[in-house]
Design brief:
The protein is mainly alpha-helical and 441 residues long. Helices cover 74% and strands 0% of the residues. The chain has helices spanning 5-66, 71-89, 98-106, 111-116, 119-134, 142-159, 166-181, 184-195, 201-222, 237-267, 271-277, 280-297, 307-314, 323-336, 344-358, 367-383, 386-397, 403-420, 425-430.
Length: 441
């Protein structure tokens, strides 16, 4: 009996070691599986959403080609219907989607965070955004992709019984940016600049894994494409010295104005703005009517995401110098209407239009290169994320030779925008979704 005691002790020690090892490795394995499976799923959903958005815009353009005055009735009605449906059934789906994930990442275990990244809300947001595109709204699909991507990542973690942390929301949102633009580096940059308040090593690994897997999935399904087309021109150091300040200041002022107006409207609780917000459906219809009129006057260039005109300018095409201001009006009216939809693509389109309008001041410089600088300047002016802007544009236009002019323009635009509006737009809008906010519901 005594001779068996060492063997029994050894067996007990071995079982204790295996049990302890399983307790530490199984949660990690489940987390990795949740990240991998969630990233694959969200990449597929992002691709389906992108194709559906293109189809919705095509249907609208064909309708307008057949009935040129139809937007005067269709667009206000669609704005009003979507505003009503959002307020009635999916309040957490309003707006871009990025502020929701920023708010959810602050308190990931709360019930409020669960609602903001709820799969039902996220899918409703995709449908409502597609309806907006069917009505000619100036909305982007990147913000909604961020919210639905985070929702899929949260759902997969819950399915595999992985505790939710801020990193889950951040990784899902970053992977959504990467999948929307087919830009893996931009996903990581966006996580650092916008989504993560405290970027820890564990979050970094989770983000990079999710971005890499979603990016590889997108490339495997859709191919390795350049989102805005390849830039064929560039500018030298001498041109950079005067183009970067000029375009950077103009884009920073315009983008800062957009951000200030949107934040003021969103946070106003008294005065005429508050009275307008008390009639959200009627106000949305009025916004839709303005968008319809601007679209007709601009020959349809301001409807939709703005991807087509921006791509045309980057590839050397020409548009009216009024495209930028017209797209600005359409975008700000769409954003203020309280309907779901992102501001990424519309902001880049406005910036391209701004650069196109300024190209006449610099006839010796290529218009496409100035349009690219305008995209960086205005986008940074709106979202105050210069690193993300440069990485997105470098990846979506294959313009690595423009990295120094882009960085110079982005930094100048960021400093200029801060003079007009010190608070970042997504962080300012996220306050409305925090539990303690009076309008958080």
């Amino acid at each position: 009996m005594a001779s068996r005691k060492p063997a029994e002790i050894g067996s007990l020690l071995w079982r204790w070691f295996v049990h302890r090892k399983m307790r530490t490795t199984m949660p990690m394995a489940r987390r990795r599986a949740a990240t991998a499976l969630g990233a694959v799923m969200l990449a597929v959903v992002a691709l389906v959403f992108a194709r559906s958005a293109d189809a919705a815009q095509l249907v609208f353009r064909r309708l307008v080609a057949e009935y040129p005055w139809a937007p005067l009735a269709l667009t206000p009605v669609m704005f009003a219907a979507v505003a009503f449906a959002t307020a009635r059934w999916a309040g957490e789906a309003r707006g871009s989607g990025i502020p929701q994930i920023i708010a959810a990442a602050e308190k990931p275990a709360s019930a409020g965070a669960g609602r903001l990244a709820d799969l039902r809300i996220a899918m409703a947001k995709l449908v409502l955004t597609l309806l907006m595109l069917l009505g000619g709204a100036s909305v982007g699909r990147e913000g909604p992709t961020v919210q639905v991507s985070a929702a899929f990542m949260v759902w997969m973690n819950r399915l595999l019984r992985v505790p939710l942390s801020s990193g889950v929301f951040i990784a899902g949102g970053a992977a959504g940016v990467a999948a929307a633009f087919n830009t893996p580096l931009a996903g990581v940059a966006f996580a650092i600049e916008e989504l993560a308040a405290a970027y820890e090593q564990k979050v970094a690994i989770l983000v990079m894994a999710a971005v890499m897997i979603s990016g590889l999935t997108m490339i495997g399904i859709a191919g390795d494409y350049v989102y805005f087309g390849a830039l064929k021109s560039t500018i030298g150091l001498r041109e950079t010295l005067y183009l970067a300040p000029a375009v950077g200041i103009a884009g920073g002022l315009a983008g800062g104005l957009f951000s200030r107006v949107v934040l003021h409207f969103g946070n106003a609780s008294s005065g005429w703005v508050a009275r307008l917000k008390r009639r959200p459906v009627l106000f949305a219809a009025a916004c839709g009517l303005i968008v319809a009129v601007v679209g007709i006057l601009s020959a349809g260039t301001t409807w939709g995401t703005g991807y087509v005109p921006a791509k045309a300018l980057i590839e050397g095409g020409h548009l009216s110098p009024w495209f930028g201001p017209a797209k600005f009006i359409a975008s700000i009216c769409t954003t203020l209407s309280g309907t779901p939809g992102g501001i990424f693509s519309p902001s880049l389109a406005v910036g391209a239009g701004l650069g196109n309008a300024m190209a006449g001041l610099f006839p010796s410089s290529p218009t496409s290169a100035i349009a690219l600088l305008g995209m960086a300047a205005y986008f940074v002016g709106v979202v105050r994320a210069p690193f993300t802007a440069v990485i997105i544009l470098m990846e979506t236009t294959a313009s690595r030779s423009m990295i120094l002019p882009l960085f110079a323009t982005a930094l100048i635009a960021d400093a200029t925008s801060a003079l007009i509006n010190r608070e970042r737009i997504y962080h300012g809008l996220s306050r409305a979704f925090l539990p303690e906010h009076p309008h958080g519901q």
